[in-house]
């Protein structure tokens, strides 16, 4: 009789290996799908944040009033991880991800499937919240057709550097950005020459930051009606070109510059090769809505 034992063993091993291979393929497909879903979710979140910031960049009609432009929101990964399960308080959920807010607002929407539809729905229902300059950071989650948007302002860290040190931190971060190609919205920029620190522009930035903080407003137009050019001239800077970025709520130079780079019009100022000098400063007033106000002034001298 022929010996079939080895053949039977090989057949059993082959079937076992085939089952393992099928399981491995199925697992790989599941992991690939999960990775693609996570990537799509991250992409959707980035797109929604970009649309929210574009909305905040310009004056808008909201609840029958004309509003000022608000500063850009900086994405914060911790806010994007907040899980508001049933029975979990917001403060507890924020503590679980290590975020300490000075103020926070959660927007939840169910239904819209596309990012643009979500953006439109939020603008229509929550325009006052989206345009509130006191919010400085944002996190977005998507679960199927349910969206969670958290807008917040963090508590200011203790031991912040003085305004000149922070201004020079901004200079360093801006020059690092100018050393690389950048995309500001739909516009691509080549690397630009580094900027120099200018003390008069720094003083002009400080004066505007202090005015916004003390008088609790957020605008390129000062309460005396002045714009950046007039303020720079008043502070002794003779200029051919002038530009200004402002921000509110961010607790560091790094977060502030990240917000500006994520906002097309602010990013354009940062990458504009015509500017050769800058100054920057912040001012704090705990009684103001945003707590801290930043100003960056760019110039090309005569």
What is the topological layout?
Layout: H1 5-56, E1 61-62, E2 65-66, E3 74-75, H2 90-96, E4 101-110, H3 115-125, H4 127-130, E5 137-143, E6 146-154, H5 163-178, E7 182-184, E8 187-189, E9 196-197, H6 199-215, H7 228-234, E10 239-248, H8 253-261, H9 264-271, E11 277-284, E12 292-301
Parallel strand pairs: 3-5, 9-11
Antiparallel strand pairs: 1-2, 4-6, 5-6, 7-8, 10-12, 11-12
Helix pairs in contact: 1-3, 5-8, 6-7
Attribute tags:
302 residues, alpha+beta, four-stranded mixed β-sheet, 9 helices, 23% strand
Can you describe this structure?
By secondary structure, the protein is α+β, with helices and mostly antiparallel strands. It contains nine helices and twelve strands. It has a four-stranded mixed sheet with strand order 3-5-6-4. Strands 9-11-12-10 form a four-stranded mixed sheet, sandwiched between helices. The relative contact order is 0.13.
Largest sheet: 4 strands, mixed
Can you tell me the residue ranges where pLDDT is under 50 for at least 5 consecutive residues? 1-17, 19-40
**Please, how many helices?**
9
> If you average the pLDDT, what whole number results?
87
Q: How does the overall form come out from the CA principal axes?
A: globular
| Termini gap | 105 Å
Spatial strand arrangement across the major sheet: 3-5-6-4
The string of secondary-structure elements, in order, is: HEEEHEHHEEHEEEHHEHHEE
- Total strands: the figure is 12
Concise overview:
This protein has 302 residues and is an alpha+beta fold. The protein is built from 9 helices and 12 strands. β11 (277-284) and β12 (292-301) form a beta hairpin.
